[in-house]
Amino acid sequence: MKLFVVATPIGNLGDLTQRAREILCSVPLVFAEDTRVAAKLLAHIGATPRVIALHHHTAGAALQNVIAEIERAGEAALVTDAGTPGISDPGNQFVETLLAHHPDVMISPIPGASSVTAALSICGFPTDRFRVLGFAPHKNKRNKYFDEVAATEETVVIFESVHRIKKTLEDLARVAPTRPLVVARELTKIYETVYRGTAAQMSAQITEGQTKGEFIIIIRAQ
Q1: pTM, rounded to two decimals
Q2: Contact 133, 183 (CB under 8 A)
Q3: What's the CATH number of domain 115-219, 3.90.1070.20, 3.40.50.880, 3.60.15.10, 3.30.950.10?
Q4: CATH of domain 2-110
Q5: In this structure, what are the phi and psi dihedrals at residue 55, rounded to the nearest 5 degrees?
Q6: In the β-sheet with 155-161, what is the strand arrangement from edge to edge?
């Protein structure tokens, strides 16, 4: 039994690797965070595997059914909506569960696009050590989260949605007013935009709700 963990483009379909294309065209089964998103990519490359939803709500009996599906298929691919599965993504939980059921399963990474490494590559900050802290909590423990960001000496990577970017920049301006930031929006897409400066400077440039998509924020090491 084998599972391929396949990185998919974060925006530009041209970033799909040849190896990822070959895998997705050859496996009988694909587990996808959103089957509609996966269907568009698979149609683009002419792949016709069966597609089954696998996301953060997949648990209990539904997760057992997913395990049974890969047991029957023999091999499958795991994809997320964009980027590398398992990186700030529920795919890592599935890999852990699969290994618990089948310790000898072969799990093979098919590397490719990742918003984390894409943003880090253009930030101009020290990247020999960095921390990825994911999305900030909406309410509970939010202050603690930003205190942790401010206390971290390494370069920090966080994610934010268009609906909360202004609030997050305000929190960063409060806890780390002088630390340089890079905020990237729509990386690899037609409206790719990269902002540089302090959190207060960013907040003046970015209007909440004016764009779609997600932001990735890089906070320079202390």
Answers
A1: 0.88
A2: no
A3: 3.30.950.10
A4: 3.40.1010.10
A5: -140, -170
A6: 130-135, 155-161, 214-219, 181-185, 193-197
**Residue ranges per structural domain of the chain:** 2-110, 115-219
What is the rounded distance in angstroms from the CA atom of residue 131 to the CA atom of residue 157? 6
In a 3-state reduction of DSSP, which class is residue 192?
coil
* DSSP string of 31-87, one letter each residue: EESSHHHHHHHHHHHT---EEEE-STT--HHHHHHHHHHHHHHSEEEEE-SSB-TTS
What pLDDT, in 10s, does the model give residues 151-178?
A: 999 999 999 988 899 999 999 999 999 9
The closest of 116, 117, 118, 112 to 77, measured between CA atoms, is 112
Helix, strand and coil in the chain, % to nearest 5: 40, 25, 35
Cβ atoms of 169 and 196 closer than 8 Å: no
- Average confidence (pLDDT) over 178-198: 93
Strand partners, 107: 3
Contact in structure between 28 and 76 (CB atoms under 8 Å): yes
